[in-house]
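Homework-ish question, so no full write-ups if that breaks the rules, but can someone show me the predicted structure for this set?
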Amino acid sequence: MPAVKDYVTKNKPTWCPGCGNFGMWEALKRALSELEMEFHDYSIVWGIGCHGNGADFTKTAGFHALHGRTLPVATALSLTRPDLKVIVEMGDGDGYGLGMGHFVHSVRRNIDLTCIAHNNQIYGLTVGQASPTTEHLMKTVSTPDGVLEEPVNPLGLALAQGATFVARGFAGDIPHLTELYKEAIQHEGFALVDVFQPCVTFNKLNTFTWFRERVYKLDETDHDPSDHTAAFNLSMTTFHELTCAPDECRIPVGVFYRDTETPTYNERAVATDAPGYKRAEEVRDISKLLDSLG
Amino acid sequence: MAEQKTVATTGNSVVAEAFRQCAPDVVAAYPITPQTTIVEEFAKIVAQGRVHTEYVTVESEHSAMSACIGAAAAGARVMTATASQGLALMWEELYIASGMRLPIIMANTNRALSAPINIHCDHSDVMGARDSGWIILFAETAQEVYDNTIMAVPIGEDPEVLLPVMTCLDGFITTHSIDRVQLMDDDSVTAFVGDYEPQNALLDTDNPVSHGNFAGLGGPYFEFKKTQRLAIDCSKGVIERVGEAFSKLSGRPFGLIETDMMDDAEVAIVVLGSTAGNVRYVAKQMRAEGVKAGLVKIRCFRPFPVEEMVSALSDMKAVGVLDRADSFGAEGGPVFLETRSALYDLESRVPVVNYIYGLGGSDVRLDLIRTVYTDLSDIAAGSASLHGMQYLGAR
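A: Not a homework solution, just the prediction itself:
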């Protein structure tokens, strides 16, 4: 069984000290290790953003895609290599901005992959502008008067579009996040894990402390993850009330919704019964065809 | 002459400042390295109330250009900025901006295109857009960035032109380096750029129009394109006229191309953007060593200044064209192809060779430029033969 240290390359992480990406990286490596994933069992696709630098120091035969374009690449991987566990690592600016169209369509197709969103509510790589999940009214260098729009609600959006596994994690709780990752990777269908990942350099509001004062675990409540309406209501009551006091606004983490009945796109698409690379292995006898041509 | 003050600033800051002075009605933009500080600084200027601009943050460059097109069609003066993948993502909208004849002003901070990922300077981004119908200006220095940005407004908005204008500055080299820049007083710039009087604006509700309608199946598409071609051809004279007026106002000369040490030159390098500075430095050294070296810097790449290039280069014994972008599969880089084509009709053939340099911010060392001049001297002397395109200094 590969150990956590077996999932890294010789390159050292380039993230800022204290970056929430470290917690997510550690949880992912632990999840892969605990699931006994060998190098040939999984593939990771990254987008553009600070999270994407993980492509350089995570061991995989993967792909560093264009800004917002992780999911199309991962879709192709999932459909042509159903034997792989396909994992997408995308950012909020990346996956919920330029990549939003791909996100919605990947969800509704129920592609068999795990979509991990590094949601730091800011553009980190371009040093601190408002992202699609930056809080309403928050001041950033691109919005000196405060953000005018409501933030994207990734969980609500995924649930509305029929996602079959929807969870939220917190980069400051690695053991809990590891368990979420494990379940998401094992889930058959589109599994979203939106992770609050504090950007210690550019997001001075949504800090580790800020989250620690507000998060609570869903599995310690009576929430029923098979109840779609309850999951949707939960997503709607928590995403845009983050500016209130810790005792007023509580942020649930854990599995919001789980549906193991709905078939995946991979199962529905007949062509994927024999993925292209397997068909290519069969040697075909075309001598009759050649004979017919004289 | 305008009142001017000299400041130490960066190319990106200068764009934001020029935008402020030109007072756009709408700026819609999206952050991308190395452009980001332009829109950041402009956002701050808007927030401080120093300009009355509707500043729109969007979720992608495609949306940024779309918002710009909508605003420009409504009759607004519109500006934006981007780079690299951002410009690539705008691609389909670039053609809509020019086809709908909307004089949007865009600063492009030249940066390499993926893959592999790279954030440093080359001209692959703008060269991908060179046939999109935009007027394209290049700057060597932050001063030229300032001048080009201000000139872009009356050029694009000229009723005979009505085309979008892209002003290019080299990523990090020009965008982020501190440079000495003379800024003009606000009143002079305001008077110079004038008020924009849009034609066929959507918000002119007394004269309702539609934009962008279907023009196929025997419709006037072909004729639309012909008028677009006439407009960009006509823009050449307008650019010269605006440049002349700007020179009077600023005291700084402007031409579609800038020639340096070309009066008695025998070998010349053709270059765009910041590398002109390196070439000029080396050309002076070469002259001290007896090589009659010259330099042609293209300031206006679209429309391509054919006559000016011919006039500058027709007597050369050898010309080296430096391209900071490749046109993969073509005989050479875009500037080479244009330059050699411009010289084709001459009675006597001018030898032209091509060097691809500095892709992805790869160092443009002086010794590399020296090898080009040496190479050209050898070709001029007949001791070396013409060669195909070379990647200058690639390992």
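Now go work out the reasoning yourself. Hint: The domain at 4-292 of chain A is CATH 3.40.50.970 (Rossmann fold).
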